[in-house]
Amino acid sequence: MTDTAEHDDQVTDDAPGARLHERRPAAHRNARRVLSRFCFHRTLRERLAVLEEAADLHDLDELSDVYGDGIVEALESKVAGLLGTEAAAFFPTGTMAQQVALRCWAGRTGNATVALHALSHPEVHERNAFSEVGGLRPVRLTSEPRLPTAAEVRDFAEPFGALMLELPLRDAGYVLPAWEELTEVVEAARERDAVVHFDGARLWESTVHFGRPLEEIASLADSVYVSFYKSLEAFGGAALAGPTELVEEAKTWRHRYGGMVFQQFPTVLSALVGLERQLPRLPEYVAHARVVAAALRDGFAAAGVPWVRVHPEVPHTHDFQVWLPFEPDVLTETAARTAEETGVVLFGGSWDRGGPGLASTEVHVRAEALEWTAEDVKAAAAEFVARLPEQVR
User: Fold this and answer.
1) Which is nearest to 261 in space by CA: 270, 271, 251?
2) Residue 360 in contact with residue 347, Cβ under 8 Å?
């Protein structure tokens, strides 16, 4: 296996563009300061150490789970309690959980049409799984970078059995509606006799924006899906929460979809750790994301880049978008070079084209970011701008 330090020494400014995808993660691994380190940034040994934290959260002397009993049931009960639902079912993936949930609702409503946003996860990231696997028919309420409005739900031109709302809507910038807007959208769906399902992969961090506890937010929907690895840093896994009858039916379909896994205790233990250790910290991350966002805007302006957009202007969660007036490949190269030369990673993700000469990336604020002051962020922005090619500055 190639030594990481030796490999990085060989990566220079004249490395071909094809190797940029190798430079970026290498620079992140070796950085002394980052805004976030996700689970996939850590070694297997570091990830396994997470399980040691579970010793005071669950009786590790009990027998291991078999096909969803024992510790799996304990996690399901805990999630139902947190969300205020009658029951919950553990699933290996959110894709499976949501397909199953909406398939069950289609059988109950007699309508397989699911109304959703054009940027919602099933439409963008799941290879048409709703229609290809689930026998569902998705219809798009809007493609605007916001959640659907009550008017769009109420006035949609054809019937639908279920309304699916992704909270927050990741591909629009991790955006959330106002609480009043959300309740109006739910009421509009009810007026059409449609059930409401929340894609709550990141619902955990929505409490700050809504100013409501998880239980009150979840109570608006007929069913809710939550993820354990996106914000809680578990090994994987998801849960579907809702009425007991729906959850029991969902478990039947979970088996049919291949989700009745023999043993799942490592993932479940890591989820319990995430609920205990990470969930209470999310409001702190959201608050600091707003500090980071404001400092980024000010830092780029002070460094000579007056047009920079932070979206949302005040982040709704601890994740948000940054838009800059340069080509994606220029920004990707600059981000990699800045990280390599300074040991500081301001932008660790990819840059996507948003139009001619315009690109966006996602900024994620986690525990590591709490060590950054606003001045640290501004200094990092200045270092980034200083490494932009002369011809584009």
Assistant:
1) 251
2) no
* Arithmetic mean of pLDDT over the chain: 94
What tens digit of pLDDT does each residue of 316-342 get? 999 999 999 999 999 999 999 999 999
Let me know the angle formed at the C-alpha of 314 by 311 and 317, rounded to the nearest 5 degrees.
85
List domains and CATH numbers for the chain: 4-11+19-45+281-392 (3.90.1150.10), 68-263 (3.40.640.10)
344-351 mean pLDDT? 95
Please report where in the chains the tokens 């940034």 appear, as a residue: 41
Residue 346 burial (CB count, 10 A): 26
Residue 53 burial class via C-beta count within 10 angstroms: exposed 0-12, middle 13-18, buried 19 and up: middle
Task: Decide: 219 and 74 in contact? Cβ < 8 Å.
Answer: no
Structure confidence at residue 393 (pLDDT): 65
Neighbours of 250 (CB within 10 A): 27
Cα separation, 99 vs 131, whole angstroms: 10
Q: Which helix (H) or strand (E) holds 203?
A: none
**Cα distance between residue 95 and residue 168, in whole Å:** 16
Contact at 8 Å (CB) between 15 and 23?
yes
- The rounded Cα 23 to chain-centroid distance in angstroms is 24
